[in-house]
Amino acid sequence: MAPNSMLMNEDISDHALSGVASLGRVVTPGEIDVSHGAILYLDDVVVSFDGFRALDALTLSIDAGELRCIIGPNGAGKTTMMDVITGKTRPDHGKVFLGQTIDLTRMNEPEIAHAGIGRKFQKPTVFEQHPVWENLELAMKTDKGWWTSLRARLDRSAQARIEETLGIIGLESEARRAAGELSHGQKQRLEIGMLLMQQPALLLLDEPAAGMTDDETMQLAELLNQLRGTCSMMVVEHDMEFVAALAGETGKVTVMAEGRVLAHGTLDNVKQNESVIESYLGR
Ligand code: ADP
Ligand code: MG
């Protein structure tokens, strides 16, 4: 099944010109079933490495359209959780579903990416020799078999989508520069742009602010906030100012420790939670 079957039935150029919303798919009827509200749910997930439980009955769900921050000490299992969601690691036990119907434990990594989950690793992986705009163009064409057949139709809107994405990631004036010449923060934004070109329904970001300057970190928070309504996001991060900028006063924050959920609530809530203070924030 093509991930963008809904788009295929409509005039794609309309989507391309309709603003930020064209870059993602929060709710796509007939494709990812979010009728119960969740874009992703993990239930009782266990991952053991030589008897050590990196994930120990992890249960968690993300609402469609939500930007969820995940915090927790090193070794809590945050990256392992993303490995499970993206098919890199098979759980020993438990359920992992995209929407109500897509069982991610039965799919391999390319299939999961194709189903609409994009993952941003810590280190930016851009094509250094290629201009910024070409990085976006290449991202649009990779692992989309159906793209070729639609090419004639899409060409006229492809340029518009690239330009729109350049605007969102704030790299319009760098479009013709080689990606290798960008700053670390710009490269991270470019990589997010490349993920957006694939129109993910859910974007996973593992410590995206690591190694960034304070300014770059806040620019990234602004970018992710701007993507609300475009795709659902799960952001693992240590930088508490960054988390505060994403979660605001009402956003939900999940605290993981020892392979499970330790606490869940607004940032203020979890900061006041006794076990969170003990195991993570310190007194
Ligand atoms: P976090 O991202 O929260 O820092 P990780 O998911 O990277 O935590 O790691 C959770 C635990 O699982 C750690 O104790 C880590 O050493 C262990 N772990 C992760 N991947 C492997 C692996 N491939 N083999 C053995 N142990 C692993
Ligand atoms: Mg990690």
Descriptive report:
With 283 residues, the chain is an alpha/beta fold. The protein has one domain (5-10, 31-281): Rossmann fold. The protein is built from 12 helices and 10 strands. The strands form 2 sheets. A 6-stranded mixed beta sheet has the order 6-7-8-3-9-10, with helices on both faces. Strands 2-1-4-5 form a 4-stranded antiparallel beta sheet, covered by helices on one side. Helix 9 (214-226) links the parallel strand 7 (202-206) and strand 8 (232-236). Residues 1-22, 24-30 and 142-146 have low confidence and may be disordered. It binds adenosine-5'-diphosphate and magnesium ion. Adenosine-5'-diphosphate is lined by residues 49, 54, 72, 74-80.
Pairing-aware structural class of the strands and helices?
alpha/beta
Query: Ions, cofactors, ligands: which are bound?
Result: adenosine-5'-diphosphate, magnesium ion
Biggest pleated-sheet summary: 6 strands, mixed
Summed up, the domain count is: 1
End-to-end Cα distance: 51 Å
Q: What is the strand tally?
A: 10
Question: What is this entry, summarized?
Answer:
Keywords: ATP-binding, Nucleotide-binding, Transport. The protein has 283 residues and is an alpha/beta fold.
Keywords for this entry:
single chain; 283 residues; alpha/beta; Rossmann fold; 6-stranded mixed β-sheet; 4-stranded antiparallel β-sheet; 37% helix; 22% strand; globular; disordered N terminus; binds adenosine-5'-diphosphate; binds magnesium ion; nucleotide-binding
What order do the helices and strands come in, and which of them pair?
Elements: H1 5-8, H2 12-16, E1 38-49, E2 52-63, E3 67-71, H3 78-85, E4 93-98, E5 102-103, H4 109-115, E6 117-120, H5 132-141, H6 145-149, H7 151-168, H8 184-196, E7 202-206, H9 214-226, E8 232-236, H10 240-247, E9 253-257, E10 260-265, H11 267-271, H12 274-281
Parallel strand pairs: 3-8, 3-9, 6-7, 7-8
Antiparallel strand pairs: 1-2, 1-4, 4-5, 9-10
Helix pairs in contact: 5-8, 8-9, 9-10
Bound molecules: adenosine-5'-diphosphate and magnesium ion.
